[in-house]
Write a structure and sequence with these properties.
CATH class of the largest domain: Alpha Beta
Strand order of the largest sheet: 1-2-3-4-5-6
Radius of gyration: 18 Å
CATH architecture of the largest domain: Alpha-Beta Barrel
Order of helices and strands: HEHEHEHEHEHEHHHH
Number of strands: 6
Number of helices: 10
Distance between the termini: 39 Å
Largest sheet: 6 strands, parallel
Strand content: 5-15%
Helix content: 40-55%
CATH topology of the largest domain: TIM Barrel
């Protein structure tokens, strides 16, 4: 999939399958091969996960990011079978996505180890805030799998312990500053990286207080992108949130064009 970088996610949980397909079509067409397009696959069954993965490959994606949606808990063997089936159904590289804060059945270290031995499972995105867990994964999988974090508060820490990048919401609002942080980490300039990360901390505070979708959509509106409000029953960004996000954008030099924007 090319050089590891930070990536910006789409919140698939609130989209219909038709909407997800259309988003992927537009992104693939717009990217024109200049950057890799990694599409999300999320399902409760192996059959549905395999169908989605094959469809994403047909649409021209460069990789698959796979997450398991489970209503009931599953055994380690069941979790392993789900991700293995998706990987074996496509010729694309696969990113495992584990989010222990939200998932009913998480990827355990033994399962991650087993999956890392499947040829095209080459990356894992871990959404915990636990750098110790990241170290455990890195030590377990060695060179077989590269580790990303999905935790925006600790990107420099992720890179310091051996991760190759992160995939988190704030990058949607501050892509230039996020890439700068990534480049500083990659070059090993940790003092400047930590200085920049401290400046970006206000975004993490806003996201924690006002919600990911509300902050991303409200922040994009402030920058002149007519993306609308989050889908109900999610709330739009509050007046206090608008003020906080606007201040955070201005503080890092991000352009704010809709100074009069008000939440719904």
């Amino acid at each position: 999939m090319g050089s590891p970088r930070l990536a910006r996610p789409v919140n698939f949980a609130y989209l219909t399958w038709t909407q997800r397909q259309r988003i992927v079509e537009v992104v693939v067409k717009t990217a024109r091969g200049r950057v890799p397009v990694v599409a999300g696959v999320a399902a409760t069954t192996i059959a549905d996960g395999v169908f989605q993965a094959r469809e994403m490959e047909r649409l021209g994606c460069d990789g698959i990011l796979a997450i398991l949606e489970a209503y009931f808990p599953l055994t380690d063997d069941g979790v392993f079978a789900y991700f293995r089936a998706i990987a074996e159904s496509v010729s694309l590289p696969v990113v495992l996505y584990t989010n222990p804060n939200f998932q009913r059945s998480d990827l355990s270290l033994p399962v991650i180890d087993r999956l890392s031995r499947i040829d095209n499972i080459r990356y894992i995105k871990d959404a915990s805030f636990n750098t110790g867990r990241l170290l455990s994964i890195i030590n377990r999988v060695g060179d077989r799998m590269k580790v990303f974090s999905a935790s925006a508060p600790i990107p420099a820490c992720v890179m310091l312990v051996g991760g190759v990048g992160w995939m988190a919401g704030p990058a949607s609002l501050i892509p230039r500053q996020s890439v700068e942080l990534y480049e500083l980490c990659r070059s090993g300039d940790w003092p400047r990286a930590m200085e920049l990360q401290r400046k970006l901390w206000a975004f993490n505070e806003a996201f924690a207080m006002h919600g990911l979708a509300a902050c991303i959509k409200g922040g994009l509106e402030l920058q002149g992108y007519d993306v609308g409000a989050p889908l109900p029953p999610q709330d739009p960004l509050s007046q206090a949130g608008v003020k906080e996000v606007r201040q955070a954008l201005a503080a890092v030099g991000a352009q704010v064009v809709m100074t009069g924007f008000a939440s719904g």
